[in-house]
Structure formats: C-alpha cells, structure tokens
Amino acid sequence: MMDKVSFTIDGLEVVVDNGTSVLEAALRNNIYIPHLCYHPDLEARGACRLCIVEIGGGELVTSCRMPVESGMVVKTKSPKIEKIIRPVVELLIADHHASCASCPSSSHCELQKLMAHLRIDRRRVRRLRLPKVKAPLDTTNPCFDYDPNKCVLCGICLQTCESIHRVSALYYVGRGYTTRIAFYGDKSRCESCRECVTRCPVGALISRKT
Amino acid sequence: MEELEEQLLREVLSFYRGKKNELIPILLEVQGNFSYLPEDAIQLIASFLNIAEGEIYSVASFYAQFRLLPLGRQCVTVCRGTACHIRGSHQILQEIEKAVGVKEGETSSDMEYTLETVACIGCCALAPCLRINNNVHGEMTLEKVRGLFNPESSSGLSLDGRG
Amino acid sequence: MIKKQYSLTVCQGTGCISGGAEDIFSSLEDEIDRLNLGEGIRIKRTGCHGFCQRGPLVVVDPETSSGLFYSKVAPGDVSDIIQSFLPGGKPVERLFYRDPASSKPIPNYHDIPFYRKQERIVLRNCGHIDPEDIDDYLATGGYQALRKALFEMTPEQIIAEVKQSGLRGLGGAGFPAGRKWEATFRAGGNEKYVICNADEGDPGAFQDRSVLEADPHSVLEGMVIAGYAVGARRGFIYVRAEYPLAVKRLRIAITQARDKGFLGRDILGSGFGFDIEIFRGAGAFVCGESTALVLSIEGKRGMPKPLPRPRTAEVGLWGKPTLLNNVKTFANIPLIIVRGSEWFASRGTETSKGTAIFSLTGKVANCGLIEVPMGTRLREIIFDIGGGVPGGKAFKAVQTGGPSGGCIPASLLDMPVDFDSLTAAGSMMGSGGMVVMDEDTCMVDVARYFLDFTQRESCGQCIPCRVGTKQMFSVLDDITTGQGRPEDIDLLLELGESVAGTSLCALGQTAPNPVLTTIRYFRDEYEAHIHEKRCPAGVCQALVSKTPSLSKREGEGDK
C-alpha cells in the first residue's frame, strides 16, 4: 500500500498521506471548505453537511469522510455546490439567535467565518421565517452555560467529552428540531476540564466565571 | 418509589440479563406496566444496565412512544396518518379537545383523560380513526366523537365504533 | 341436519376487530353450538382480507367459486347467517356487498371487483388461514420451501434463484433483494444476522401489519431461508409498538414454529440452526434507515450513519454482516423457492418483477389492502379495484410513497405503477401507501401535512433536514393561514432542492418530494393561497371565509 497519494483540488496538485480526508488535505493546503462539525482531534461525523465538494464527474460527497484517492479531482466551488449549500447556511443563520456584538465567541466563531467565506447576503435570510420563541439558557452545569439558541448541534462537545473521559456527561435529548445538548449528572461526572467549551465552534457553550 | 412498584419493577428486570441493548425493550415493558417512565424507575434501570441516567433520557426522548408523565385512565390517541388527515382527523381532534377539555399532549387534572396523537394506527381504510386505551374506533364523525365522550351517555365507551 | 359441509371464516384483522369482529366470532360459535350444527359448519378466524372498510367481514366457503361475502356484519346478523345454512335457508341479502356505482348486490366473494382484479401472491393466505394455527399454514404447503431450501439447495443456489427472480426490496428503495443477499453471504465471519423490517413508518400504509397479522409464518419461513442462504443463525423482527396484534400473532407463530422444529438449533434435522426474536420499535420513522434501525436494536438513538460507509450487509448489527429486508420481501421468498424464479419473474415489468401491494385509502370507494402485478395502471387500481371517488366528486391526485413520495395528478392516471415510473413522476413506491385525493383535498394543505410529519420525525443530527424541513413547514403553514408571500414558491423550490441535495439520509433527501410535486402539478393552488388568500378546495380554515362556497361557479367568488 502506498504511503502517499496525490490528487487535484481546485486545480492544485497536492500530495498527502494515504488515508487523509479530502477536508483535511484541503485545510492543510490552505484551501478553506465550510464546516462546523469537523474537529481535527475527533472522528469525522459528516453531520453538518457543509463540507460537500464535487469529485470526478460531479458526484457530491462530504469531504470530511471522503478519503483522498490517488488521481482524484476535487472541486470545492461549483455552481452545483453553491446552489445547495448556500440555503443551508442561510437556514442556519435564520435559526441562530445571532447577536454577534455581545457574543463571547465573536471573532473566533466558525459560523462567522463561513458566512464571510460565502459572502452571505442578509437580505436573502430575511425571506425565511425566524423562530418565534427563544429557548432559556441551561445553567445546570457547574462551570459553563449552554445556549440552545446558538447551538448548531455539531456534536463536538459530546465527542470531546467521550474521547477525553470515555463516558460523556453531555447527551443529545429530544429529536429533530427540538434536539438539544443536555448535561446530566453531578460534579463527579463533569471534571470541569472545559475542553468542550474551548472546542465549541460557536457561542453555545460559555464558560462561567467563578 | 413505593415498595409495590419497586417490587414490580424488579420483577420486570429479572427477565433481562443487564445488557445495554435491552434498554428499549425494558423501557417499553416498564412503561407498559406504569403507563410512563417514573424517575425512580429510570434510576433503577440505569444501575441495572450499568449506564448513566442521562443516556436513558437521551434514548427515551428520541422515540415517540416514551412518556415521562403518567397517563390518564383513558388514553385517547387520535391518528394523524395521511388517510385520516384528508378525511378530517384535524376536526376530530378539535372536537375531542372540546369534549374532554384537554389539548393534544395533555392529561386532565382529574387524571381521567390523556389526549395524544400518533403518526399512524395502521387502520387507514377506516379513516379517520382513534384509539381509546387498546380499542380502535374507525370511521369517526363529529357525532360519534360527541357520543363517545358525552358524560351523560352511559353507553359511551362501549360503542362498537362502527358507522 | 345440514347436508353440505360449510366453512365460515371471520376476519380478525385490526380493522374488523375494531368493528366488533371478536364478538361476532363468539356469537357465531355460540349459535352453532346452540343449534348443534358443529358437524356441518366449520368456523375459523382468519387474518385481514384487505377490504377493511367493509368490515367486519364473514366469508362462507371462501375456497369455492360460490363463496359468499358478507360485509358490515353486526351481532344482530349472526342468527340470520346461521339460519341460512338450514334447509330452506337463504343467503342474508342485506349483508351483500353493493357496487358503489349501481348499488347492485354482488353476493359472490370472487365476483367483487375489489378482489377480482387483484393478483394475490404475498397476500396469498391473508384472509384464508388462521394465523394462530400453524397447521393451517402447513395445509397450504407452508414450510415446504424451507424443506426444499435446506435439503435440495445450496446457499449459492438459493441466492441465484432470488437474484434471477428480479425481486426488489418492498420497503421503499427497491434495491434488488438478491444483491443484498449475495453481499451478506460474501461478507466474512461466521456471526451474521437477518433483520425483518416491520417498522412500517409511512403514515398511510398498513400492509406489513396486515401480513404479520394474517400470515406470520410466511415471513418467518422467508427469514429462515434467508438465514440459511447468507449464513446467519439469528434473526430479528423489528415491529412497530403500535401494532400489538401483529406482535401477539408473531409470538404465537414463533412458539409454534419452534415446537414443530422450523426454528431452533437443528431445523428439521438438517444441522442448520436459526432462531428469531421480536424487537418492538419505539416510534421513530427514521428507523426505516437501515443504520438507524440497527442502532435502535443496539439500544441507542436511531440516528443514521452518513456515507461513505460500509453497507449494512457488511457492517451491520453489532458490527456484523446483516441482511435487512422488509416484511413483504420475506413473504415472497417461500413462493420463489417452491415455484421458481421464472414463475415469479413472469409477472411485472422489465425492471419491476412480481407484484406491488398498496394500502388504498383516502377518497376512494373501496378502501383496503390490494395486490396487483407491477405495471398495472393507476387508473385500474383506483377506478376498477377502488371503485373510483365516492359521492360524485372529481379525482384530483393520488399520493404514493408516503412522506418520501409525491402527488400524481389526473393527467398521469394511465401511468403503469412500478418502481421506475413512480420515481420518474417525482414520487416513489415507498412502502406502498396510496392515498386518493378528490376536489375537496387542498394540495397545499397536503404538502404542509407531510412536512409537519417529516420535521417531527427528523432525527435532528444534520442541519438541512433539522432546520430545512422545519423552515419548509413554517412557510407552508404561513401559506395555508393567509400569510404567504409572493416569493414563497421560489423559496420552497430552492429550499427543497437544497434539503434534498445535502441531507444525510433518505428521510431528508426525500422530504421535499411532497412539496416539489404539488408545486409541479398544482402550482395554481399555491398561487390562489398566496395571491388571492383563497383555498380553492375550501380546506384551510383561516382562508375559508374567503373561499367560494361549493355552490358558486368557478372563478366567481374571489374576495
């Protein structure tokens, strides 16, 4: 088996280790592909669907789970991608109670980053229906608060807790649109390492100053 | 949890081996006995299966069957399947809400009625239909709803549900 | 006292039971005992006949050409039915089925158009045998396919037979069954599983329930044969918790099959061992996705796994190769084994072999469960078998494929019904729901209804499905309550394309279909709601005061 594979991404010939995902290969070569649920330390979940790229004859795949194959030709931008990805981001923004000015994550927020990358037009977002009710802040964790209105349900916090402590103190509850991240248990379960807070791509997990 | 209830729960659990994949069957059976998943029961199941309580809530909240609140003596389940919808299940639901005085998803304060909806009962040829506890009533009309839930009519729930 | 032998069958499907069929059965039994007619009249319970709408059903001598069909039987009819067998007795005419158009009584079971035009293969035993008595199944040749498979065929031969039959999965996607079997067979390891998907999540389909209630052994037999062919020793039936009667009859059937040696460590002395467990689903439409269903059996949230990933046939339950097929797919297997793939493939179309089963419901005269050869025209199903739209109303559309499917307009009524034609029309076969809609059905309301369903059933893990179906529902809700905006149709089309193109699993990928097809074929109804604040069908309550009453002429009553 080869150790290295070479492929083409946006016209650029790139050589990476065998087994590297298309998304990782792109990021390492300074090609940004929108993403929210990917974190370099965690297994790729393919849940946010934003990292879709075009390969070969036009097949659309999530780049985070697609391993690079020798000779593969990848396009990260195309009218086809643009047409289906832009509405997803607009949907997310319409649903995200964004008040970037007062958000502690502002300036290091992945959502802001991908909005800038895609040059999201706020007027297009206004065509969408905004949620009518704001969910209350969850303050049950001893060291951080959870704002469900800002959460994009990327799952990074859960995966982080699981990978560090083997058993997660964070869980998905509910289903569909009402899915939330919930904290169960007491101080003995959460070791207050705040790794989940650090890795949250948006401002959904907020460290509490004590 | 009362002693009798705990005894019942332990008896239910005695038929299982304590493996994680038994969670959903256990929850269904516990709910079958208690009409809902009591908090104490969830604690006991968690220790029996050696998993966190949070995991049980996480799984239970994913599936439409599970309830965390007790049911009324009469659980009225209105089908909102496609055939029922286009034959007017919405009006049937509204009429029942009027008749029993609770909204979808609620239980009356005297614990007599719980009103729920379900994705499909599977009696589409008899649409619109509903279920009261375990009995299916098909081809519902507003008049039949009034007949079923009229407190003056003693025959009320013994109606055979036919048109 | 009675010269002839009569056989009396009483349907005990969920539909007929809801009409009091259990009481009718016991009253008939009592009456036979009271008059001491047990010698001349044999009475038995059967599963669903399919014609639930006319229930409770009692059929006299169903196996003979002169069999009588009694519909809407009530306890008060019992004595007259029994009297009819006595010398000089006459059939009970008031219980005859009447043709909806001519009101002409049709006494004979086999003359009723609802049955006459069907070809029942999967439903072969439904309504004919007692589902709680394995001997009744054996009397129809039951478990002969299993004997043949175990003693005369190799696993490779069985898989070849299934492949040659052209059988496609009848749970929704229509994937060739034989290829799944082969992939599971080829996958390594000696621990494999067979799962029967009986979760029937389509809110408007009940054929899986009916088959399980009426003929559970045909499914068990299909599963054991599958187990032998792919090399599995354990099977699961994943059945909706909403189907208590199906669960009860499956339990009885499994116990009886074990007692007779059709399940267990050493089946019929062949050395092959296989057993089946029932797993009750807990209510999640998304568990129709194979990876979600597998997670559910493992005791987890049923959140589908994204592609690229190995197929369930290779990495399934507990990471082992797993064959997952639908109830109807398994029920076909015994016949394919006994009669051969050629016999099976002789019906249907070039790419869709065998029969299709539909739950024919909605605004149609004869509601019930039907089975027709693939390729039968929609018109034949709805008008010949279904008896057309009742009450002199005009046919508007037929919805197939449930929340993943679409609405097909009158202009396509001559379309043949098979996997590919339905997909080409923007709909799909799905799990076999077929809901007829008439002039009083609002197509925007129907689209809103389905998006309400999918947004409730979305698992929530991927953004387009979680937020997109919710948004599409909100827009449709606004349109049906008079708050639609001029740009909403374009918005729905754009969102629909995005949700379909980006969602993680088939639930989200197909969720926009009901919206996209209703815009494609009934755009004028959307426009009336948005621009004129009018619901042409008179369904949307908020717009109803602005809707012309049915007595007014078309185009006259706006505003």
What does this structure look like?
The complex is a heterotrimer of chains A (210), B (163) and C (559). Chain A contains 6 helices and 9 strands. Chain A is α+β, with helices and mostly antiparallel strands. Chain A has 3 domains: 75 residues, Ubiquitin-like (UB roll) (Roll), CATH 3.10.20.740; 46 residues, no CATH class; 64 residues, 2-Layer Sandwich (Alpha-Beta Plaits), CATH 3.30.70. In chain A, a hairpin with a 3-residue loop joins strand 3 and strand 4. By secondary structure, chain B is α+β, with helices and mostly antiparallel strands. The C terminus of chain B is likely disordered. Chain B folds into 2 domains: 58 residues, no CATH class; 80 residues, Glutaredoxin (3-Layer(aba) Sandwich), CATH 3.40.30.10. Chain B contains 7 helices and 4 strands. A 4-stranded mixed beta sheet of chain B has the order 2-1-3-4, covered by helices on one side. Helices cover 39% and strands 14% of the residues of chain C. Chain C is built from 21 helices and 15 strands. In chain C, the strands form 4 sheets. A 5-stranded mixed beta sheet of chain C has the order 12-11-15-13-14. Chains in contact: A-B, A-C, B-C.
